[in-house]
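Researcher: Watch the backbone:
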Amino acid sequence: MRRLIEEEKGPFHDPQSCCHLPCVLLPIDRSGGCCLSSDNLCCLPPNNASIPSMFASAVARVARRVATATSTTTMSVRRHWGQQQVRAATMSTDASSAPPVVVVGSLCVDCFIDVPRLPLRGETLASHNTRTGALLPGGKGANQAAAAAQFGAPTLFNGRFGDDADADVVWRTMTDFGVDLSLSLRDPACPTGKAFIFLEPTGDNSIVIVQGANVEGWTNENLFSAELETAIRSAGAVMLQREIPDFVNLEVGGNIRWMIE
């Protein structure tokens, strides 16, 4: 995960900028809440009036809620999807009978580039790090799914991959994290999504995303399937983000309400 560490402050959620809205997606028994920001639509567990300052906290709490607490152990979650271990939370190790987390969303390959500053218009700027440019699996939807799976929840991911080497990397990594990709599709006509992340010494970053299959891969015809409907009906939580077309979020949210009424 890109920054899955539980801190008081973090980049994913700012409680001052989040707004409480009527739930579009929510834990299936309707007992939770949801928060919509420009990037993420997150299902939160019940009895959680405040929005976590770190998006990872929301993922962890959803996973905790749906995982069966028959035994506990201290788990570690891999920062940057496996490169650096960080201590996370005490979680269940037996989730075989728990309802799944279903994530419908985005995935990409992140290219991290260290820069002394952002270049000016027309300027060519050399990085101060001659070995920068690491390629790592990412994307808000894939991050959600990987985090939920690592926190012990059975997790299904419905996303749109290209049919290229980048897709192979993300697919293999998500599978290694224990995410079920049987709902996902690979589109030979679209490239896998990419994100170019410019990191400054101050810790500030600027990001350009190339959406690829995250946008072009979704159609009204391939959005819903019998398998997805079955997964949603059995889910403990469903999660979305704003890196996929809005019509996908609206359609999935509307169908969830219809399925549980």
